Amino acid sequence: MDARIPAHLEVAGLIRRVQAEGGFAMVLKKGERDAGTILVVLTHNGENTRIFERMPQLDGSRTWSCSITEDPENKKDFADFLERRGSQDPDLWVVELDIADGERFIGFNPEQG
């Protein structure tokens, strides 16, 4: 049995938590309701934008890792990455969180990877 929280509930929870802390959050792409993969775009006031996704680990766990960081001089690569990921996975959710230290909402610990 898969103990995973349905994607739509996880996304709704992320949005509510960020908004409760005074941040902005929105769904950029809606994926499969229950089992869709979630990409989280983290930014703060439109700066330091990066994409996090859960990646499978050797021990079977799935931990958050940063897939790409936006280069302010070349925003096209970032947009292309998002478009490519969306076209590869029709079940994909893309959620943007605009708040300081957004990593805390996904439980990402930079010291772990």
Explained architecture:
With 113 residues, the chain is α+β, with helices and mostly antiparallel strands. The chain has a single domain (7-102), classed as hypothetical protein tt1805. It contains three helices and five strands, in the order αββββαβα. The protein has helices at residues 7-20, 75-88, 103-106, and strands spanning 24-29, 38-44, 47-56, 62-69, 93-98. Strands 1-5-2-3-4 form a five-stranded mixed β-sheet, sandwiched between helices. It is globular. The model has no long low-confidence stretch (mean pLDDT 91).
Characteristic key phrases:
alpha+beta; 3 helices; 5 strands; globular
Tally of individual helices? 3
Sheet of most strands: 5 strands, mixed
Multimeric state: single chain
- The CATH homology group name: Protein of unknown function (DUF1491)
- CATH topology annotation: hypothetical protein tt1805
Total strand segments: 5
Class inferred from helices and paired strands: alpha+beta
Helical content class: 25-40%
Are there runs of 5+ residues with pLDDT below 50, and where? none
Distance between the termini: 28 Å
* Largest beta sheet: strand ordering: 1-5-2-3-4
Number of domains: 1
The percent range for strand residues is 25-35%
| Overall CATH class | Alpha Beta
